[in-house]
């Protein structure tokens, strides 16, 4: 019984096998305002893609995480990083979240779980784990951070990029 529960929980929480350097899933999706987002097109233009997965719009940790990404957004832009928050929230909730907090970058509603599945982000009951995925301009997984601290995530990613790019 305990083993069956552990297997069920591991499946719900998501596999952790996304490896650095492997080809990234270059999806075509829509942002919360219905605008098309093509990951292959972004990487072909020489951009990094940063996906910060979060459990629920307007919750305290997600609010702090979103605000910090908004504060650092000009620096991410300078480094040619397209920043997207991803959650299971409906587009309308994400739009309200964006407008309430003046968030920057894009938000991707993942109602069918396609994005989370592609990047092996788990979760329970529609609340995604707090994971961050960085795709490099070559269309490969640059780095994956699992179970991030919402108060430090944006700074951690920016520090990594600055050290990698020497900027």
Automatic annotation (TrEMBL):
Identify the Gene3D superfamilies for this entry. Glutaredoxin (3.40.30.10)
EC no. given is 1.11.1.24
Keyword RNA-binding recorded: no
| A GO biological-process term | cellular response to oxidative stress
Keyword terms: Antioxidant, Disulfide bond, Oxidoreductase, Peroxidase, Redox-active center
Q: Where in the numbering of this chain does the Thioredoxin domain appear?
A: 18-166
Q: Name one GO molecular function term.
A: thioredoxin peroxidase activity
Pfam family example for this protein? AhpC-TSA
The record's function comment reads: Thiol-specific peroxidase that catalyzes the reduction of hydrogen peroxide and organic hydroperoxides to water and alcohols, respectively. Plays a role in cell protection against oxidative stress by detoxifying peroxides and as sensor of hydrogen peroxide-mediated signaling events.
Q: Tell me the protein family, please.
A: Belongs to the peroxiredoxin family. BCP/PrxQ subfamily.
Q: What is this protein called?
A: thioredoxin-dependent peroxiredoxin
Q: Which organism is it from?
A: Meiothermus granaticius NBRC 107808
Q: Give the encoding gene's name.
A: bcp_2
């Amino acid at each position: 019984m305990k083993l069956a529960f552990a297997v069920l929980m591991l499946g719900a929480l998501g596999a952790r096998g996304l490896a650095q350097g492997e080809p990234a899933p270059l999806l075509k999706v829509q942002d919360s305002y219905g605008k098309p987002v093509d990951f292959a097109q972004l990487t072909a233009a020489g951009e990094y893609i940063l996906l910060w997965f979060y459990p629920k719009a307007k919750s305290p940790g997600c609010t702090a995480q979103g605000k910090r990404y908004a504060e650092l957004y000009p620096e991410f832009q300078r480094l040619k990083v397209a920043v997207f928050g991803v959650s299971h929230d409906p587009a309308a909730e994400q739009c309200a979240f964006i407008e309430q907090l003046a968030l920057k970058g894009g938000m991707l509603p993942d109602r069918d779980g396609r994005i989370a599945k592609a990047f092996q982000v788990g979760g329970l009951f529609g609340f995604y784990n707090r994971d961050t995925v960085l795709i490099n301009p070559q269309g490969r997984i640059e780095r994956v951070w699992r179970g991030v601290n919402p108060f430090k995530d944006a700074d951690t990613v920016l520090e990594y990029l600055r050290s990698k790019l020497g900027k």
